[in-house]
Every structure is written in C-alpha cells, then in structure tokens.
Amino acid sequence: MNRRDSLKLLAAVAGSALPWPTLARGARLAESSSVAASDAAAAPVFTWLPLGEIKPAGWIREQMVRDLHEGFAGSLGRLCHEASSDIFVSQRNSLQSQNVANRLGVAWWNGESEGNWRAGFIMLAGLTEDAAAMREADEYVAHILSSQDEDGYLGIFAKEMRFQHAGELWTQACLLRGLLDYAEITGRADVTRAVQRSADLIVSSYGPGRRSLPWGESHDLMIADVMERLTDLTGETKYRDFTLWMYEAWSQHDSKSDTTLRSLLDLDAPFVQHGVHTAESIRVPLWLASATGRVDLGLASRHALEKLARYIEPSGSVVSQELIGDKRPDPTTTEYEYCVSKETQLTFQSALQKTGVASFGDRVERVWFNAAQGARTPDGRAMSYLTSDNRLRCDGRSLDGTRDEPRNKFSPTHADVAVCCNPNATQVAALFVRGMWMRRGGDTLAALLYGPCRVSTTVADVKVAIDERTSYPFEPVVSIDVAPERDVEFSLLLRDHEWSRGTTVECAGARIVREGDYWRVTKRWTAGDTVRVTFVPNVREVPAINGEVALQCGALVFAKAIASTKSVTKTYPLSGFEDTHYEPAPGEPLDLKLRADARWTGFGLAPVQIAAGPDIQRPFDTPVVALRGQMLRADGTRVDVELVPLGNAPLLRRVTFGMG
Asked: Cα(286)–Cα(222) distance, rounded to whole angstroms?
C-alpha cells in the first residue's frame, strides 16, 4: 500500500490521524480531544467496572442466551475434540503423550481452543445469569483448580516440559483470562488468588538471569492481558515490569514484526503479518504506555492505531487472510477472519478506556454491530472463518475462484482448518457488554457503548442501579433510568457519536454541559430520575478503497442481501449443526449502482422502521430497519431496492456500490 492510499483510507475510515491525549491526574476530560505534544505519565481516563456489574438486556441478552441454548457457544465441547480435550488437567502434554489431535498437530493448539471457548462460555453464563450454564462453569473452574500444582502452575505441560515451548504463555493467557472472568462475576477471591499464583510463577520463571522466552509464537505476548488485569486488581507493579521486559525482549528478538517497538515507531512500515497477532498485540504497548508514561511507547501506540486504520474494511474489521500482507482493504477482493474482528474490537475498547478518545467507541460499535454480526448466522449455529464485505458467494473457494479455500464456509467448528475463530466468537458480545459503562474518578459513571443493559454499582459509596432502555442501534433514542439507594450527587458522562448531528440530552433538574465529545449530566439523583438521549442519524457515505461507497445510518452499515442456494457439506452428530456453502440464486441483480444525482439526499434512500414488538428481540432474524428507495441497473433503469443492516445479510450480500 502506497502512502497516498494510506492517507486516503485514514481520511475515509478514521477521519484523521488518531489523537493521543496527555492527561495529568485530575485533568478535565475535555482535554482528551486534543493532540498531545508529548506522552506524559497518566492514569487511564476510565477504569473498568468489575465484570458482572453490567448485565445485558433486551436484544443483546436474547442473542447471548440463544447462543448458549441453540448455538455452538453452548455446545462447542460436544462438537469438536479441540475444545474438550482436557489439555489443562488430565491430558497435559508430557514426554510420554502429546495432546496434538488437531488439524495442525500442534501441542499448544487445543489449549487455545479450550481456553478461549471456556472464557466465552463463562462470560455468557454469568452475564445472562443462566443457572444451568453457571453450574457447568462452576464445575469446570473446580476441575481446573484441582489441577493446580503446588508452585501455582496452571497450564498444558507436565512438570518436565514446562516453560520450554512457544505457545505455552498464550494458552495460559486463554485459560487465566477465563478464570479472572469467573472470579469477577462470582466474587470468588480464591479463584483470583489461584490466577495470581500462576502468574507469579510465570514472572519468577523468566527474565534476566533466568529463562529466556522460547520465541516462535507472538500470541505469547498476550499474557499481557492477564498481567494488566492483575495489576489493576492488586496494584502490584511486578506484573507491569514483567510485561515491559517481555515486550522489549521480543522487540529485540524480532525487530521487524508488525508491533515491535522498532516497527511501530516507523509510521511508514506496513502491517504484513498475521492479522490476529497484529490487532491483539497492539494492546501491549498501549497498556505499557499508559502504565509507564514512556514517550516512545506512547508514540508507538499512536502509530499502531493509525496504521491499523489503513486496513479497515467498511464493516469495521481489519483485512486479514491469515496475513494482512499490506493488502488494500478492498471490500470485494479481501477478507477478514472472525478472530481479527474480536481482537480489533477489544483493542479499540482498550484504547477508549485508556485515552478517552470518543471516536474509539464508534469503531467498537462498527465492528460488533456490523462485521461481527455479518459473519455469523442469527441463531449462532455457524459462522464464517473468512468474510468479505461484498460476499458474492461462499463456496469453499478463494474469492477469485482459482483455488480451494476451506475457510470460506459457514461452520460451527471449522475443525478442518483450525478451531480458533469459533471460540473467539463466543466472547465478542460479553466483551462489548463489559465496555458499555466505565468509571471516571469517584463521582462519574460513563456510558461509552450503547445498547440495552442494566448496571449495578456504587458511586460515592452509594449503591446505584441503572437501566438503559433502548433497542439501539435499531433506534436512535436511549433512556437511562437512575435509581440510587439514597439520594446522591454525581455525574453521568455520555459519549456522543461522530455520525450524530444535533444530539439532544434531557434530564429534569440536571446541569447538562458539553465536554469535548461527551455530555456531562450532573444532579442530585433520586430513584425515578431518567435521562433521555436522542441521536440524529442520517444516511452517510463510508468510502471504500476501491472507489465505491458503503452506506451507514447511525451505527449500522447497510447491504443489499443476495438470495442464495445452500449446500450442506458436513453434518454433526449433534442435531442442527452443519457446514454449509452458498451460491447466488439465478437472476439476482449484482450490477446495482447508487444514484449520483441524489447523492446529497442519501442517494434517494431513506431509513424506515419495518418491524417492532417481539421482532426487536431478534433483530438480525428479520430486519427491523431498512433503507428504501431506488438504485440504478447497468442500463440506467431505476429499480426499487431495500438495503438491510449487514447482520441481516450474513450469507451473501453487497455492501459497497459505485455511482451512476
């Protein structure tokens, strides 16, 4: 990708180079919208609420419950061996026996599959308060803790093989993240202590004068996710110091990798490696910059997020056909993995938490409401490993039709390729919910990602319940009911959207002021108080690198669904699960163009509400909103069309269009 393309895409997708604020402790949030001259040490702008204090409601909860009861999220261990090989307990790798029953024959792979799936399952069970699923989560955690060695080890290797193999820290990250999820949801301090003992062993096993890291798998860097959470929970700096040593050691060992310090300090160096590695490992310098205040890490983090924007598709995900390969993110000729959608979403959430830059919230919402929903079936029974925004067929072939590509299908496991995307797919909804609200200091709660949810937390030592009532993003109105245990004064901070022009915030008796890209609502709250936020969406263009445009209205990207014929390529012993291919049905028009003469009025397409009532609980089964109007055929004739949210066209669709 040349520099002109990079600048064009940054302008189209990111709006501009991403700001990186410098906030001294206690600085006003409004300062976060300006570009800092240097990177001074600063606490993150926001702090996470404990997992479990935010619970999904409405359509989000319905999707999560359905995934548990009907989808592969609740059954992955019964659908494939990789997610249920018990690699952390009875089937650890040893000199006598290797746990390598997976497509790649890799000793650590089943640890990723099982660890990531169980983390997703635990979050889905706990956040939806599903009693049967939580019993299963309880049993799994008890099973894992029963295997913890006396020195604290939790992992996939027997004692004689520990800390010698690439991929080991990665599998521990997958497991320990899930255990920390469980500990936060249940309040089980003993589980937190078990994770801390395991992390302490890792910290004491590597470093100067001890072992060197067995490089060869950059996923290992993501033990940083565990170290960051333990630093937040315990306040101990040894976890930060270990991660800093690890990142610097890796940067010296493999200086040309996408996210090493040297590569990130060079803004012109392209991203070329495995997209999932790149998207996730940006979180490492991002955290370290916040935790240490080092100028070079701050600059590297800002560059990382700017460079990532060069590869973003109109749906919000990052081009990755295993490799990024410095490919132009063409919506017709390039694809993205489901794993990279999850990691991109989480990295943007981390950036929002640390910097307070409101536009990161728009990026998070674009990924989850569009790319992630558009790569899965609404019932959660299958998803596509690779996805293109303009998916004109999904038939086990490469996009150009020249070779087999088994990642191009819908499957509940993708075990013939790698059981990685499906376990990751079980996490995205819960991770989104975790980031919906955060805390700013001791007297402010911040609404950062919108959707139906319930919050139970404390502010100024007073218990507060918040009920966010909305069907967002399918409607532009959000009502926030506030019910403190007793009257108390504090602020709500409400993120505004880049796409909303003329947002209004109403709350009787409150002081409402604008602070940068946020609204601050302050009052002495009493039970029954309500804040009403009304966003103002319109049909807007999302330019693509191929010269075409996608259409976005509010947080949703819209697509022309293409009728398809289905072929079943594999069935599973568990009823209702299958691998499938799709080809366009005969006669489907693929040559539609937008009306250039109506460009300034949304190309003549207008949003309409087409369903309500019970349908809003399952909005990706049947569209509840659409864009309706006329488009042009290749011969110039006008035809009536209906564009639907990308998640309502998960099989075949067209997202970007030329103009005629």
From this structure: 12
